[in-house]
Structure formats: C-alpha cells, structure tokens
Amino acid sequence: MTELRFGVIGAGYMGKAYAIALSEVATVYELGIRIGKEMIASASAAGAAEAAARLGFARSTGDWRALVADPAVDVVAIAAPTPFHRDMALAALAAGKHMICEKPLAATAPEAAGMARAAAGAAAGAGVRTMVGFNYIQTPATQLAREMIAGDELGQIIRFSGTHNEDFLMDPEAPHGWRLEAAQVGRAGAMGDVASHLVNLARFLCGPIETVVADTQVVHPARPGPGGPRPVENDDQGNILCRFASGVMGNLQGSRIQAGRKMGLAYEITGTKGAVFFDQERPGELHYYDARDRAGRRGFRRLLTEPGHGEYGRFCTGAGHGYGYNDMIVSEMAALVRAIDTGGPLWPDFAAGYEAACVIDAMLKSVDERRWVAVAEISEGLG
Predict the structure, then answer these.
(1) Low-confidence spans in the chain with pLDDT less than 70
(2) DSSP assignments along 236-288, one per residue
(3) pLDDT of residue 382
(4) Within a 13 Å sphere around the CA of 92, how many CA atoms are in the beta-carbon half?
C-alpha cells in the first residue's frame, strides 16, 4: 500500500482536528505511506467547498453519501454529530471503507451493537478496520500510568476514581440544542457525551467494568429555544459506582454544568504499593505516590512527561515541553493508518465503542430500577 486517501464528514471542530492530524501524521510518524486529504463533506456544497479550500482537501461535497460512495476515498472519518453516526458508519462499512468515528459511537447500546456487528462482518470479509475517537487514552501521561500498572509499580490495583466534568452548559440561558434531545442522542446526556471518554479510559487502565449503580440529575429542566423554552431530556450530571471484572472498585462522575471545569477529565488509581493521579487540564504531569518510601518522605511527586512516555518523543525531544489535544488526534490517526497498512492490532475499535455504550445503558437501567445492574444484562454479544 502506497497511499491512503481520507474523506472527512463534518467541517466543524472535529473535522478541523482530523484535517490537522492528516496533514501532520506522516511527518511525526515514519509510516512509509502517503496520506491524502481527498474529500470533505459538509451540510451544504458551498460550506464544503469553503472548508476544502481552508483545510486543504482536494475535493468537496454537500452530500456525505457521495463521499462514502466515492471510489477515490479509502478511509472515512466521521466528525459529524452523534445522531448521524449510525447511518454514516453503516453506509461506509457497506462500501468497504475503513473508518474512524467520533464518540459516542451511537445514541444507545442497541444502535452501537448493530454498528459493531457490521464492522466485524466487514473486517472478516474485506479486512476493514474501524476505530472510535476515544482520543484521551493517547496522552503520554496515561500511557505511562498504564505502563506502571502493567509493571506492578502500583501493586494490586484496588480502586479507580475518575471525573469528566465540563461547564459548557453551566449557564441556564445557554440555548437548547440536539445534545439535549433524547430522540437525537439518547437518554444519557453528560454521561453519554463526556463521560463516555471516562468509561473508555477506565477500561484502558483497569479492564472491563462488570456492574454499576448510578444516579443522574437534570439541573436545568428547560432551555431557551425557538418559540420559547424547550425541555431538557437527558442528564446534566451523574455518578456511577462500579465494580470491574478484576475486582477493582470504582466511581465515575460526569457533568456538563461543573462550574470552572473546561476539561475536567481526571483520575486517581490506587494500588497496594502506591497510586497515580492525572488531570487533563495539566496533561504534561502524572503524580505518583510510592508507599514504599520511608516514613517522613512519603507524598505525591510530579513526573513530567518526556520521551519514552507513550508517543511523547515523536512530537518533542525535551521533557516537560507539553503534548496537546491535536497531538492526541495525530497519535490516534497514526494507529489507524498503521493498522490498515500492516493488519496489526487496533483499539479502541467499534467493539470497544459498543462496550462503552453498554456501560452507559447499564447506568440508565440502574437509574430507572434503583439497583445494581450487571453490564452483561445490556450486552447482546457480538458473536
């Protein structure tokens, strides 16, 4: 394979992030393959043409179906809102296209199951590879935390505590939108949107979540919309207690109304030999506590990310210089390109997106029935 030609659906925030990654990935990584920005699709032909000129795509279209069907497009990148994911992904899989799709994979676990099954069929039949945009697992500090866990530096892991809190809907006068409509994105609001990242991150570090008990809350029951106030149909914030299949205890918290939090994705992992703490608002740091230090010298110490921590060294040769949001997308894109080119492993794929959706739907079932729910009660299996 000498070239992979990408088509991006969506010219907004994530569409631009994908365009940046496609421009940079072959410079940062030694891929041995050319990356082509073949086509971008947006809601209108004029808007798509403007985006193509601005972001460096060869062609554009106002119809995403035309992009999916185009024989010159090898890989489809879905950067459109969640309500469109299922139809776009199923069409791309039917056309035999490799794919990356933004999270959450779908509005509900049954929708995600259909997408994951289609992806498994396309993989078996035509070697199609899929990926879900859970980009925060790419952070070098989190890669380091995973390495420390695997190396037994923390001992037996006994607890995971995490948050993904933001404040983009803190203002009660913020306008109504598709993110607040159950028919569009499902009954999980903040917990399906931002906290799905946290669910995948917890899975990456501590393994599968087995059981959950949860509570959610709508703080602002209505928001301004055309013609007057419109109801908010999913949660503004929520809490999950969980137990991992490994026996690790956990708690997860998500919010879209948390005052002052812009990227409040943080976690603490406790083991029998020590602990680590990470905060995405300070992404260049991992805080490490070694319980084996002598009395009077124990305390969290700051480890600055540096070459050797995950993919950091590909972007910068100096410790502590930083690794940013768009760098995560570049790392994500490199993993996708390599897997397509070599047939090597790729995670998180659509099956992982479905797994996260099952945890979120188990949370909703727990809220409805006021009890602990096993994730297996939701999971249909993909066999």
Answers:
(1) 381-383
(2) SEEEEEEEETTS-EEEEEEES--TT-SSEEEEEEEESSEEEEEETTSTTEEEE
(3) 66
(4) 31
Contact, 300 vs 277, CB < 8 A?
yes
Distance (Å, whole) CA 88 – CA 119: 12
Secondary structure percentages of the chain, helix, strand, coil, to 5: 40, 25, 35
In whole angstroms, give the CA distance from residue 202 to residue 250: 9
Maximum pairwise Cα distance, the chain: 67
Q: Report how far residue 217's alpha carbon sits from residue 239's, in angstroms, rounded to the nearest whole number.
A: 9
| Phi, psi (rounded to 5 degrees) for 289 | -115, 125
Q: What DSSP element (H or E) covers 228?
A: strand 228-231
Enumerate domains of the chain plus CATH numbers: 3-135 (3.40.50.720), 140-282+284-321 (3.30.360.10)
Q: Distance between CA 299 and CA 316 in Å, rounded?
A: 29
Measured distance CA(312)–CA(125) in Å, rounded: 36
CA angle (78 as vertex; 73, 79 as ends), nearest 5: 130
Are 367 and 216 within 8 A, CB to CB? Answer: yes
What's residue 28's pLDDT?
97
Predicted model pTM = 0.96
Angle at 213 between CA 375 and CA 223, to 5 degrees: 105
What is the pLDDT, as a whole number, of residue 383?
58
Q: For helices 13-28 and 325-342, what crossing angle results, to 10°?
A: 60
